[in-house]
Write a structure and sequence with these properties.
The protein is of the alpha/beta class. It has two domains: about 20-95, no CATH class; about 115-255, Trna Endonuclease, Chain: A, domain 1, CATH 3.40.1350.10. The protein has seven helices and five strands; from the N terminus they run αααβββαβαβαα. The chain has helices spanning about 20-50, 50-95, 120-130, 175-185, 205-215, 220-230, 235-259, and strands spanning about 135-140, 150-155, 160-165, 195-200, 215-220. A five-stranded mixed β-sheet has the order 1-2-3-4-5, sandwiched between helices. Helix 4 (about 175-185) packs parallel to helix 5.
Length: about 260
């Protein structure tokens, strides 16, 4: 005998009215309304008894709101500052890791066109020649108030050389007045062991005579070109040669006097 099949109620069938759940919902709602009413009444009574509390509560609320916003802004500013400091620290670390490249003057060319240079570039070129030939502590001191010292250096054998640069055209020779102004400061003011005047022109006869008397080395256009090419002596070597010749001349004169 086959048992009759039980019918399954449809899945989307609506649940019937539940009196117990409905009653519980309204009871909870009544409790919430009652509590809120009691709290509102207590606040109203407190305000009625002490009206100043209203001001205190308003100020406290505004202060809390402003403090919350300020904390948010401060937190944002702190995050930004931290990001900036982190970036600055990275850049500083990169700078420290990068080796510093010292300033170097350009190496003097074999035959530069000194006439095409500016006066400042001409002084730099003479300083580069001194560095090329082993001088140390080379300094370009030319400018207003230099008192004739355009380039100052220390020769390989430890002598202080002071150089005045005269960038003149061929038709403008260095005169005796130029030598006299330089001769008055090179030894007494600049404490030169060797004083040199370098020019792109030449020297007048009175200027050469004064230089010979004061012990100033004169380097004209041809001597400068020979110094640059390496075919001629350096100015401090020329000074040493002149000093030796002067010493031999003085010794010879004393021998003649004794005889």
């Amino acid at each position: 005998m086959t048992a009759p099949a039980r019918r399954t109620p449809p899945a989307n069938r609506r649940r019937g009215f539940d009196l117990r759940s409905t009653a519980l919902f309204f009871v909870l709602l009544a409790l919430v309304v009652t509590v809120l009413g009691l709290m509102a009444r207590m606040v109203a009574d407190a305000v009625e008894r002490r009206p100043a509390w209203v001001f205190v509560l308003v100020v406290a609320g505004v202060a809390g709101f402003v403090g919350l916003r300020r904390r948010v802004h401060v937190a944002r500013a702190a995050r930004r500052a931290a990001a900036v400091l982190d970036e600055a620290a990275r850049e500083a670390a990169d700078e420290l890791d990068t080796p510093a490249i010292p300033h170097q003057r350009p190496v003097a060319e074999a035959t530069p066109d000194y006439d095409a240079l500016t006066p400042e570039e001409f002084e730099e070129a003479i300083a580069a020649l001194c560095e090329r030939d082993g001088c140390s502590a080379v300094d370009v001191a030319g400018g207003a108030g230099d008192l004739g010292a355009d380039v100052v250096a220390v020769t390989p054998d430890g002598h202080r050389v002071v150089i005045q640069c005269k960038q003149y055209v061929d038709t403008h020779s260095v005169g005796s007045q130029d030598l006299q102004r330089f001769g008055g400061t090179c030894f007494t003011v600049h404490e030169a062991d060797i004083a040199v005047v370098v020019t792109t022109s030449d020297f007048t006869t009175p200027a050469l005579e004064y230089a010979d008397q004061c012990g100033v080395v004169c380097v004209d256009r041809e001597a400068l070109r020979s110094w640059t090419d390496g075919t001629g002596p350096r100015p401090w070597e020329a000074a040493a040669t002149a000093g030796e010749a002067a010493g031999r001349g003085t010794a010879g004169a004393e021998t003649q006097v004794q005889q």
